[in-house]
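Supplementary notes for students who missed Thursday's class. We covered one full example, reproduced here. Read the sequence, then the structure, then the short commentary at the end.
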Amino acid sequence: MTSKANLGDDRALEGRILSALSASGMDAPSRADVIKEIISSNGWDSVASILERILASNRRIDYAEALADVYFSASLEHLDFDCNRTMALMLSCGIKSGSVAYNLVLSTCVEKKGVGYQSGYAPEDDPEIRSEMDRLNMGR
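Structure (token representation):
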């Protein structure tokens, strides 16, 4: 059971993250840096579920671009998250092949799933990610 204090902390963290994601005049890498600072101060476990909830409820490409950077960094640090679900959420935001965000999604998959860059791998064709995307689209 979540205490009222924890719920308030989660809401405050979510508000800080949403403010960073919505900041006008900041590019996606700068927004990602602010979120990484929030993670550094609060810990991955405190922030990870909030990031997923933001992605799932908003599915905004401008959010996904910044969060793709955050999740790539998390994969390099071997932090725990559901790669299939998270990358499905990213791709469901409308990230296009060849974009910086797409390349970060691809790099995250390479890191988390151990697929090679030269293998012809495409996250949107990965059966596990595709299954998650189908599941997400059914819930809309």
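Commentary. The first helix runs from residue 4 to 22. Residues 111 and 125 are 17 Å apart (CA to CA). If anything here is unclear, bring it to office hours.
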